[in-house]
Amino acid sequence: MTDPGFGGDEVRTEQEIARWAEGVAAKAEKYREVSRQVADVTVDEASRDGLVRLSVNAAGALQHLDISERSRELSGAALAASIMTTMRRAQSRIAGRVAEIVAAAGVEEPGTADALV
């Protein structure tokens, strides 16, 4: 007796299952590679006046901060505003970098880049 869900041809069904499993494995490896690349994303940004340079990771967390000696001329509030503005600009570029990685990997499922950011 054959299972009607498999079309009745056991050999063909086994081949189809094997092809499907290979496809799933290939897709899983592609997603693992995309995930590794996204984890390595860093975005560098500098303030317009060059007083602040920083890097953020794929999650938007600050990884590096360099403040120029010239910043001593600024008030604390002005320096803080410059840091925050620069960090937000860097963070706003993360989604684009992730989208580039997803596109380069050939991932076609909609929303993948958004899910990774």
UniProtKB/TrEMBL annotation:
InterPro entries: YbaB-like_sf (IPR036894), YbaB/EbfC (IPR004401). GO terms for molecular function: DNA binding. This is YbaB/EbfC family nucleoid-associated protein. It comes from Saccharothrix algeriensis.
